[in-house]
Amino acid sequence: MMERSTAVWQSWNWDLKDHNPPLK
């Protein structure tokens, strides 16, 4: 459960990073 949620979260997170510059 936790692992699956993390994988999904990382999936869209990486997608955002690929389309947008880092917020830092």
SSE blueprint and pairings:
Elements: H1 2-19
Question: What would your notes on this structure say?
Answer:
- This protein is mainly alpha-helical and 24 residues long.
- It is built from one helix and no strands.
- The longest helix is centred in the middle third of the chain and has 18 residues, at 2-19.
- The chain is elongated.
- The mean pLDDT is 65.
The succession of helices and strands, N to C, reads H
Poorly predicted parts: none
Helix content: over 70%
Q: What class do helices, strands and sheet pairing give?
A: mainly alpha
For the report, how would you describe the main beta sheet? none
Give the rounded overall mean pLDDT: 65
Q: Proportion of β residues?
A: under 5%
Total number of helices: 1
Distance between the termini: 30 Å
* Bulk shape: elongated
Number-wise, the strands total: 0
Radius of gyration: 10 Å
Provide key terms for this protein.
single chain; 24 residues; mainly alpha; 1 helix; elongated
Report a brief summary of the structure.
The protein has 24 residues and is an all-alpha fold. It has one helix spanning 2-19.
